[in-house]
Every structure is written in structure tokens, then in C-alpha cells.
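Apologies for my clumsy wording, but are you able to produce some protein sequence, whichever is easiest, and the C-alpha cells describing how it folds?
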Amino acid sequence: MVKSPRMTNSKTSVVAFAATALLALQLGTASADGLQWNDAMKAADRALNESRYADAEEFLRTALEEAEKFEPGDRRLDLSLSRLATVLYFQGKYDEAERLYLRAVAILEKTLGPGHLRVSYILTGLAVIYQTQGKYQEAAPLLDRSLAIREKVLGPEHPDVASTLNNLGMLYSAQGQSAQAEIVYRRALVILEKVYGPGNFEVAGTVNNLGIFYSSQGRTAEAEQFLKRALRTREAALGMKHAEVAASLDNLGVFYSSQGRAAEAEPLLKRALAIQESIRGPSHPEVAISLGHLGALYESQGKPAEAEPLLKRALAIWEGLVGPNDVRVAGTLSNLAKIYKTEGKYAEAEPLLKRSLAILENTRGPKSPELATDLESYADLLRKMGRNPEAIEVEARAKGIRAELASASPPKRDQ
């Protein structure tokens, strides 16, 4: 699987979790009967900040049990549902997260109305789940509706409107709708620059995403310009050792790696990893991402001895955080298999690729581009092992997926 730079989700479930913390505290301290709920919510917040997802889930399940006891219409119920859904999403438990978000939406639509601003945040969280699973047709109308709510309530030039446009840009880009992606990204950038100024930190996320988008389109000069701008903005606003700075370093390093500019990529990726480890500790998901990118760079340079320990460490982090069947585990397994294949360790590569394929089929579905990529890699491995009949069969399946993806023509939507 290819290296994936860090896109910046704006006002998605991640931000929504933090944004509701103060409101949760206020609601929980309003009466004595909410003390246990409030304690559970605060404990969950602490656990999430420390990437203790299993602990956060346990605390939030306790909070939800308490919230179920409150009077109908109590805001603490939808808050508990949405925050638990967010933590489940972080752990790759998409089905349950989806059910909780849907329940939260139903409650909010009934109590506050379908056009309430709070509804837009839950719709965005639900869309992120669908997008992660490659369910773009399900995600798109949710983001469209979220955008319509925010434009109506807040006006067309509000930063939260720009946030939804940013998320739509990510969706369009994933679907290959590059013209629409650039339009919404550019509109988001205009709004944010008008509100905050072009050098403000709040603009950096959209600038970052435009850089990644241009890289995916082969527009390398623009990609480098925007990725460097995002890095400069974050360094100026946050200092040289902030997690957001590390993310920008990582993105620029991945870009240089994709261009074969390893000498420029390596110090950026090393610096990003060092910052993430110093800030977040050795077992954080952001550390796993940086390890994966640096390992992939070494693999592309034909340095398996340097790449293998990094990818093994990334795999251990992901499995510990999200379990053995998450798409991020699949990506690391695939990259590790590539190293073994290069070294001629075919017997070690095959079970890793087969496991990655099983995860992708379960999480992304039987027609995803990621699955096609791994099938192609597996077919190549089978040929190297002298198992040509199996290779032909696997290759044919990959070609079928590619052909179906190429023929799919998602309808254009005006903005």
C-alpha cells in the first residue's frame, strides 16, 4: 500500500470530542444526579488525551449508562452517544460507531430540529466513518447536508463553513473528483484567509490539504509550495517542536520521498518522528504513522535492514491501539511484506499479504483500490514463488477491480 500523508480533518469527530468537553462539564455539574456521569466523561477525556482508547471506551460506556437514566431530551445522552462513537471510530469499530451516531442524530433532530447546528457536527462524524470505509456515496450527502446547515445558520463565509468545505475536498479527492476537490478547497482557503489572514495558524490545515491534493495530481511545484507554506505557518505559530509541526514535516517528507528526493525526505521524517515521540510517547498513533513513513522511505531506497524494525514497531503500536483487524494494520503488513519480498523471504511475506487482504476486504469492501493494490502485490509474489496459475487468478481479480473503478463515474455536484 502507498504511503498516506496526513490530511487535516476540520471540525470532524476528533475536534467535536474536544469541543464538547466544556459543555459536558457544565451539564454534568448542573445537578447532583449527574456527578457520576461527569466523572466518567472527564476520565474518558483524560484517557483519550493519553491515547488509552480502551479505557476511554469503558468510561464512556459508564457515562452512557448514566445518561440513559436522565429525563427525555437531556443533552447528556446525545453527548455520550457521540463521544463514545468517536472513540469507537478511533479503534476501528465502525459498525457500532455508526449505530451510535445515527441514534445521536435521531435524538437531536427530534429535540432540536433537523437544521440545528449540533446536528451538522454529528453528520460530519458519521461521514468520516463512511469515508474511512470507502463508502463515499453514503458520506457525500451527509457532508452536503452539514454544509447546508452551517451556511444557513452561520452564513456562507464562516470558518465552520470552510471546515465542511475542507472535508468535502478530502471526499472529492478520494473519489477522483479532482476538479470539484480543488474548487471547495480553494473556497475554504479564501474564507479562512479573509477571516484570519493568510499567515494565521487556522489557515494551515487547508493549505496542507491543498499541498497533498496537488501532489496527488502530479502538480509538484504547487504541492511543494503549499506544503512548505503550511510548515512555515505552523512553525511560526506553534514553535519548532509541536505535534502539528511534526505532521507538516512528515507530509513534506512523504512528498519528497514520492519524488525520489530521499536526501531531502529523510531528515524531515526523522525530525517528525523525534518530535512525536518526545511529545506523545513511544506508543502513540502519530508515532506509528511517522514510523511507517520513514520505514517506507528506507524500503524504497533498498534499505531493508533499516526499514524492517521501524515497520515492526509501527505494527505493534497499531495492533495494541486498534486491534489486529484495522485498515492501518493492513497498510503496515503490506509494507512489511514488500520488504520480505525484496529480500527473497517469500514464505514470510505471503502470510502478511494474505492477512492484509483479508482486513481490507472486510473494512474497505471487495472493490476498493487498496485491495486491488495488495492483490497486484500478491500476484507478483506468487509469480516469484513459481505459482503462476494462482498468480493469474489473483491478477485477474485485481484487473477486474481496476476496470470497475475506472468505469465508475460519480455524478458531479455543483458548489
Notes: The chain has a mean pLDDT of 90. The chain is about 80% helix and 0% strand. The two ends are 32 Å apart (CA to CA).
